[in-house]
Amino acid sequence: xxxxxxxxxxxxxxxxxxxxxxxxxxxxxxxxxxxxxxxxxxxxxxxxxxxxxxxxxxxxxxxxxxxxxxxxxxxxxxxxxxxxxxxxxxxxxxxxxxxxxxxxxxxxxxxxxxxxxxxxxxxxxxxxxxxxxxxxxxxxxxxxxxxxxxxxxxxxxxxxxxxxxxxxxxxxxxxxxxxxxxxxxxxxxxxxxxxxxxxxxxxxxxxxxxxxxxxxxxxxxxxxxxxxxxxxxxxxxxxxxxxxxxxxxxxxxxxxxxxxxxxxxxxxxxxxxxxxxxxxxxxxxxxxxxxxxxxxxxxxxxxxxxxxxxxxxxxxxxxxxxxxxxxxxxxxxxxxxxxxxxxxxxxxxxxxxxxxxxxxxxxxxxxxxxxxxxxxxxxxxxxxxxxxxxxxxxxxxxxxxxxxxxxxxxxxxxxxxxxxxxxxxxxxxxxxxxxxxxx
Length: 439
Prior knowledge:
Mean pLDDT: 78
CATH architecture of the domain at 11-159: 2-Layer Sandwich
Strand order of the largest sheet: 6-8-9-11-10
C-alpha cells in the first residue's frame, strides 16, 4: 500500500529540489490557513449569520402579525416605525408569490434564510431573492391574503467582517510564501551551480574554479569538489606530459640507430633491424596520439554531420557511406571527437570494404552507429579491444598497423564527454560500434 502511494507521489510531485522545498514550506502554511478558514466559517461566520437571520425573520414575523390587525392607523404607524428603525422598504401588493425560486443551493446566506423562513412561515408562504440586487435582499411573505414585500440591506444577514478576514488571512500567507521563495532560490542556486559544474567536469570540460556559496554544508561540498577537480586535472596533465616526454626522448636514439643501420654493409641485417625500428617508431606515434587525447581542449558547438563529412573528404574514398536524418549540434571538444571517429572508421577501412555511418538524434542524446562489412570480432573479445595495447590474434586485428591504442583512445574520448561506447554485431554482418553522447 505504502509502496504504491510512494510511486504515485514520485510520479506527480516535482522532481527539482527548489519546488520540493517550496512544497515543504508552503504546504503547512496553506493547510493551516484552510483549517483556520473552515473553523472560522463553521464556528463564527455561520453561527453569526444564523443569529442575524433569525433576528431578521423574527422582525418579519412581527411585521406580518401587525398586518393581521384591523386598525389601519396602527398598521400604518408600526410600518413607518419598521421602515425608520430597521432600514426596511415595505410594500403591500395584491398578487401571488412567485413560483420560480431564486434560491442558490450552495450559498450559506440562502440556506440560512430558507431554514429560518420555513420554520416560521411554512414551506409555501415565503419567497426571497438574494441575487437580483448587489447589496439588497428581497423577501415576500403571505399575510392575511396579502403579500408583504420587504427590501433590506444584505449586510443585515451577511457580516461584513468575512471579507476583511479573508483579506487578512490571504495577504500574510502570500507574503510569507514570497519570502520563502526568495530564500529558497538563494539556497538552491549554489546546489544547481555545483551540479552544473559536476556535469561539465564529467564531460571532460575544464573547470576554471568554483566559488563556494550558500549554506556551510554546500560551501564545503563545493570546496572539496574544486580540490578534487584540480587534483584530477593535475594528474591528467602529468600523465600526458610524461608520455609526451618519453616518446620525444626515444625518437633521438631511434634516429641514430637508423643512421647507423644505413651505413652497415650487411644489408639483410640492416633491413630486418630497420623493420623493428619502424615498428618502434609507430609505437611512439601511437603513444603521442594517446597523450594528445588527454590534453585539455575547450568545448565548442560542433556540427556532427559536418565533422563526418570532413573525415570523408580527408579519407578521399567512396567506401564511407553517411546517413543523417537531422542536423546535430553538440557542445564538445571537436579535435578529440574527430580523432575518436577517425580511429573507428580507420579500423573499419583496414579490415572491411565499406563503412556505414548513421547519426540519430533523440530528445536528449545522439546515437552514432558505425558499421562495416568485415569479418567482425568474437563476442567474448568485445571488452578486451578497449584495453590499452591489446591486440587480437584473429583474422581481424583492430590494430594491425598500430599498437592497440586506437579503441582505447576512442573509448577515453567518448567517456570524457559523458557518453557510452559499445560493440555489437552489425547489420552488415560485420562489427557495429555504437556511440551515445548527451546533447
